[in-house]
Write a structure and sequence with these properties.
By secondary structure, the protein is an alpha/beta fold. Helices cover 37% and strands 17% of the residues. It has one domain: Alpha/Beta hydrolase fold, catalytic domain (Rossmann fold, 3-Layer(aba) Sandwich), CATH 3.40.50.1820. The chain has an eight-stranded mixed β-sheet with strand order 1-2-4-3-5-6-7-8, with helices on both faces. Strand 1 (46-50) and strand 2 form a beta hairpin. The protein starts with 9 loop residues before the first helix and ends with a helix.
């Protein structure tokens, strides 16, 4: 086959962008996302709010354990834009709320029901809702820190490019979508070259002067690692304060989210320092 991206043909790209194939126990980890979120909801103060008219346009707000106004961590879930839910996205809430941070887990309409343009627009409206309403939940709308994992890392980076937040933590995100139309992922995403380009944070004007933390798992494919490291370099070149947290030995694309929510883990601690440092 003729190479289509970075010397790789579609078959090679399918291997590089198949995150599940790198993690044999992926279904167990995804089930743990829901179990840990259920446990967080059983232990913490939280509520579901709506930011739009359709059922998926909702978010879960976890109140900080200490009196506000508290900094706010806004988390966008992954799932290659077609899977998972805010109901799977609260595993980090116990650690951050105990540290005085309000946590918001954003839900959005999944592909193929929604195009990527629509998904990005919904996430923008969710962030607008947070700015307008988070004070009612003890959060400080002037201290917003974005975070996202995998496809959620992409969505957080798209919102980061819009400006108006204090920083971000991007976990194994996709920042250049140019290869996606050549992969199996396009069976549900239906991206043409133009849609891939306008939804690629690495191809858009970047903010400057922000702290941005990036990380990837240890056992990920070369392309997932390259996407993180290349975007980190671009953010640094634009004048941002970039930290790339080294992977925990043996960590993968999916359990990286547990590192993010674990007090004492370098990824959790780097994010907490960044949020507090921008108070």
């Amino acid at each position: 086959m003729t190479p289509t991206y970075r010397g790789m043909d579609p078959a090679m790209l399918d291997v590089q962008y198949n995150a599940r194939a790198t993690t044999p126990n992926v279904l167990d980890i995804l089930a743990e996302y829901r179990a840990r979120t259920d446990a967080a909801k059983a232990a913490l103060r939280w509520t579901t709010e709506r930011y739009g008219p359709t059922e998926p346009e909702r978010l879960d707000v976890y109140t900080a354990a200490t009196p506000g106004p508290a900094p706010v961590l806004v988390f966008l879930h992954g799932g290659y834009w077609r899977a998972l839910d805010a109901a799977d996205s609260g595993s980090m809430a116990p650690g951050f709320t105990a540290s005085g941070i309000c946590v918001v887990a954003v839900n959005y309409t999944l592909a193929p029901k929604a195009s990527l343009d629509r998904i990005v627009e919904e996430c923008r409206r969710a962030l607008d809702w947070v700015r307008a309403n988070i004070a009612w939940h003890g959060g400080d709308p002037s201290r917003l820190h974005l975070a996202g994992s995998s496809a959620g890392g992409h969505l957080a980076a798209m919102l980061l490019a819009d400006g108006g937040v204090r920083g971000a933590t991007l976990l194994s995100g996709l920042f250049d979508l140019t290869p996606i139309p050549h992969t199996h992922i396009n069976a549900w995403m239906q991206l043409d070259a133009e849609a891939a380009a306008r939804n690629s944070p690495a191809l858009l004007p970047l903010p400057s002067g922000l702290p941005v933390i990036l990380a990837h798992g240890d056992t990920e494919t070369a392309e997932f690692k390259r996407q993180t490291n290349h975007f980190a370099a671009e953010l640094a070149a634009a004048g941002n304060e970039v930290t790339v947290v080294p992977p925990r030995p043996g960590s993968n694309h999916f359990d990286l989210l547990f590192d993010f929510g674990e007090p004492g883990n370098p990824l959790f601690e780097a994010t907490l320092r960044t949020i507090r440092g921008r108070a």
